[in-house]
Amino acid sequence: MPNPSITLRAVSHAYGDRAVLRDLSLTLTERRVAILGGNGSGKSTLARMLNGLILPSAGTVTVDGLDTRRDGRAVRQRVGFVFQNPDVQIVYPTVEEDVGFGLKARKMPKDEIARRVTAALDRYALARYRHQPAHQLSGGEKQLLAIAGVLVLDPAHVVFDEPTTLLDLRNRRTVIQAIRDLPQHAIVVTHDLDMVMDFDRVLVLEDGRVVIDDAPSVAVPAYVARLG
């Protein structure tokens, strides 16, 4: 298969009469891509389009050649999504159960599920909480649990929607490092400008359009200047 990529062709989207994305055409292949923009710029809608959570009103979104409109199930197996609030994503009582539920849904053998869950818990320093109630974890630990629950499924791409917004400084650093260490392509919607300075590409959305598309060293100062 060619290098993993997500492509948008002439994508627009509206909620009723309110346009939120306007004629976007993009190909995302870089290992780390950030999406910046103010509230109402369309960035969260764009993020949810990348794995078919939202379908465009016009145009097409394809993931490694799969159309989100026609191939939604296959797309969601290739694109993991980590929500801003991990409580939205954590659905099972214990840490171990929550990490493993997606694997069970794919009807994997029990020994393979156990192996993958153990590896994911070890990777994100959650092994000691394995049998504990998920709701008792700290905010940062919950975010790592949400990431583990996505990564255990081995997607080709991972989309993060404001992954550090609800975190204190220590947990923010932990989650940023976890994103940096991912082998997968990561697309990160964020207001955290410091986090994206070592990314490969930064997109800035304004009123549903990409107004800046460049390396962080160029895009971030230009974005700050536009904020005025």
Please tell me about this protein's structure.
Residues 6-224 form the ABC transporter domain. One of its GO terms (cellular component) is ATP-binding cassette (ABC) transporter complex. One of its GO terms (molecular function) is ATP hydrolysis activity. With 228 residues, this protein is an alpha/beta fold. It has one domain: P-loop containing nucleotide triphosphate hydrolases (Rossmann fold). The chain has 7 helices and 10 strands. It has helices at residues 43-49, 72-78, 95-105, 110-123, 139-151, 169-180, 216-227, and strands at 6-15, 18-28, 32-37, 58-63, 66-67, 79-82, 157-161, 185-189, 201-206, 209-214. It has a 6-stranded mixed β-sheet, with helices on both faces. A 4-stranded antiparallel β-sheet has the order 2-1-4-5, with helices on one face. The chain starts with 5 loop residues before the first strand and ends with a helix. 41% of the residues are buried.
